[in-house]
Design a protein that fits this description.
The complex is a heterodimer.
Chain A (H helix, E strand, L loop, with lengths): L15 H6 L4 H9 L2 H11 L11 H6 L10 E6 L8 H8 L1 H15 L3 E6 L4 H16 L15 E6 L9 H8 L23 E5 H5 L1 H7 L1 H5 L2 E2 L2 E2 L1 E8 L5 E6 L4 H6 L13 E5 L8 E2 H4 L12 H5 L2 H4 L7 E6 L4 H15 L5 H18 L5 H14 L7 H25 L1 H4 L14
Parallel strand pairs in A: 1-2, 1-4, 2-3, 7-11
Antiparallel strand pairs in A: 5-6, 7-8, 9-10, 9-11
Chain B lengths: L11 H12 L10 H12 L4 H11 L3 H8 L13 E6 L2 H5 L2 H12 L12 E6 L11 E3 L2 E3 L4 H13 L2
Parallel strand pairs in B: 1-2
Antiparallel strand pairs in B: 1-3, 3-4
Classes of the chains: A alpha/beta, B alpha+beta.
């Protein structure tokens, strides 16, 4: 069952002509000619599709919060600032099948009553911006964008906006600040963007993959979408698989596939690279808690862990994690957890916007402490100090970057404490090039 | 690079592009064009000089400080002159798992420079960047718009040879 990637390998699918031949833009025809905006919103609500950027908030509910004061423009902004380490699905989707996003933007903008919508793409993906702008020009030339689309009386203009290189702009209010030509400092909430967003007007911000689901939902109905998947994890999800696996890449899965199957089946990752075995895994992008092998394929209760929002979170942070953005990073026994945690800590220190003290200072402290541990000058007290700093960042910042910085550190120590201790008690061994804590395999 | 502000002007082609960008936002919201215009500056001059920032401020009718604070916040803007090819090397976790650190060491040795430096011939500048959203195709670096993926020391040599030859 493929919703987003069914036609992704059709030669020429990036062109309007081929995309149209594969049934593209029928959702625009259906929505604009046969449905009211409210009916489109209703179908998206029924679908149960949840935000695919990482937070997993129900998309239809987010849409229903949009304020609609008279005479005030409303905006839809697509978040294509994909920057979470381990995540590259939106990049893949936009470069391969740009018209799917454009079609989704048209039906979503129609549903929300937006006449000017934005796609905010991270600046590094300048070549993808070129691909999207070409697709927009084609759609416009064929009457699917611009004034009075398909004679419906509905007008829409799409603008592709480049970022400037800042992970924080993936946070929706930082993104709006950036789109207004400012530094990417997240805003205090409330007011939420649904009430005061872009230019202080009601705004919805949705991830690329979320929006790309809407044409299918319009064509097939929300109930049909909700029948795919398990429980509150409806539909499909793009998983970006990277690290020590045989077949890295982007896979579209029906939510509910067992994690074990996703790692070892030839349909997906194809297993751990030859001669090695699974040590740890980050299931949803660098921010989510890292899990050791024995908690990845089974929950703490011994049940098979599934690729759903609920199953991955089973056990809370004690033994579970999050689906997040679907950035699936696989570590075999050659990976040093301390080194990787330092790497991620460096990332968050670099990307903190500096607005809130706990995050600005705390991310720097965590990186420095981890640097000492990794380079042989750490002490046993440093490990508890790290836990303490992480705890004091978490929940104490305007935006979730603080949590995102704290969780990888806290979870690495929670599940791999012996490895941190080995670094501080055996600095000579631990600092040898390529040295890794002697790790006992958990055989599957 | 000249610091004479009278010379800081977009080419007619880039000026037309800039005006098109400025016109696409709602009335009174022309400041939204700031990030795109800074990219355009960098495309024309290779870096974003203080004079170019002042020029952008004048085009958008905003205070120069509003440009400075943005240009210094975002990491893509080069605030110093750079070499002809800026290699932006991903240093983040997933690329490292694929051998990114070894490939980076090789690249530094090959160019004879460290992170942030430019080769004496002015051809290459080396920068470390965070995740480029290409983790399944790592190790990765970027030169301008182009992504170079699944890098190995051999592949790095080929790319450097090729770019050096273009001189």
């Amino acid at each position: 069952m493929k919703i987003l990637t069914e036609h992704i390998n059709v030669p020429g699918i990036e062109t309007f002509e081929v995309y149209r031949k594969q049934g593209g833009y029928t959702a625009v025809e259906k929505a604009l000619k046969k449905m009211t905006p409210e009916e489109v919103v209703e179908e998206v609500k029924k679908s149960g599709v949840r935000g695919r950027g990482g937070a997993g908030f129900p998309m239809g509910m987010k849409w229903s919060f949009l304020a609609k004061p008279e005479g005030v423009p409303r905006y839809l902004v697509c978040n294509a600032d994909e920057s979470e380490p381990g995540t590259f699905k939106d990049h893949y989707l936009m470069k391969s099948i740009p018209h799917l996003l454009i079609e989704g933007m048209i039906v979503s903008s129609y549903a929300l009553g937006a006449n000017k919508s934005f796609i905010y793409v991270r600046g590094e993906l300048m070549y993808v911006i070129g691909i999207l702008e070409k697709a927009i020009a084609e759609a416009k030339a064929n009457g699917f964008l611009g004034k009075n689309i398909l004679g419906s009386g509905y007008d829409l203009e799409l603008i592709v906006q480049p970022g400037g290189g800042a992970y924080i702009c993936g946070e929706e209010t930082a993104l709006l600040e950036s789109l207004e030509g400012k530094r990417g400092n997240p805003r205090n909430k409330p007011p939420f963007p649904a009430v005061k967003g872009l230019y202080q007007c009601p705004t919805v911000v949705n991830n690329v993959e979320s929006i790309a689901n809407t044409p299918w939902i319009v064509n097939n109905g929300g109930d049909a979408y909700a029948s795919i998947g398990i429980g509150r994890s409806t539909g499909t999800k793009l998983i970006s698989a990277s690290g020590h696996i045989k077949k890295p890449g982007v896979y579209e899965i029906v939510l509910g596939v067992p994690v074990e199957e996703f790692i070892y089946s030839d349909e997906y990752c194809g297993g751990i690279r030859d001669g090695h075995y699974l040590k740890a895994l980050v299931a949803g992008g660098s921010s989510v808690p890292i899990l050791p092998a024995h908690l990845i394929t089974k929950t703490a209760n011994g049940e098979s862990r599934l690729m759903t929002y609920e199953s991955l979170a089973d056990g809370g942070f004690q033994s579970g994690t999050m689906l997040g953005s679907g950035g699936f990073i696989v570590f075999d026994e050659t990976a040093c957890i301390v080194r990787n945690t330092l790497n991620f800590a460096h990332f968050y220190r670099h990307e903190s916007c500096g607005q809130c003290s706990p995050c600005r200072e705390g991310t720097g402290w965590m990186e420095k402490i981890l640097y000492r541990i990794e380079h042989g000058t750490g002490t046993p007290e440093h490990i508890d100090l790290l836990v303490d700093v992480a705890k004091k960042i978490e929940g104490n910042t305007i935006c979730p970057l603080g949590d995102a910085a704290a969780w990888p550190v806290a979870s690495a120590i929670r599940h791999f404490r012996d490895e941190f201790e080995w670094h501080v008690t055996h600095p000579e061994e631990a600092t040898k090039p390529g040295a890794v804590f002697p790790f006992e395999p958990v055989l599957n | 690079m000249s610091t004479d502000t009278t010379e800081i002007k977009f080419t007619p082609e880039n000026l037309a592009k800039a005006q098109e960008i400025i016109a696409r936002y709602p009335e009174g919201k022309q400041k939204s064009a700031l990030l795109p215009l800074l990219h355009l500056v960098q495309a024309q001059w290779g870096w974003v000089s203080p004079e170019a920032m002042d020029y952008v401020a004048s085009l958008l009718d905003i205070q120069p400080i509003e440009v400075y604070e943005v240009a210094t916040f975002y990491t893509m803007y080069h605030l110093q002159p750079v070499g002809k090819h800026v290699i932006e090397y991903c240093r983040t976790g997933p690329c490292c798992l694929m051998g990114g650190e070894n490939v980076y060491d090789h690249l530094k040795k090959r160019l004879g420079i460290e992170t942030g430096q430019t080769t004496p011939d002015g051809l290459f500048t080396l920068k470390e960047v965070e995740c480029l959203a290409a983790c399944g195709w790592g190790p990765v670096f970027q030169i301008r718009e182009k992504y170079y993926m699944n890098l190995t020391p051999e592949k790095v040599d080929e790319i450097i040879d090729e770019l050096s030859k273009q001189e």
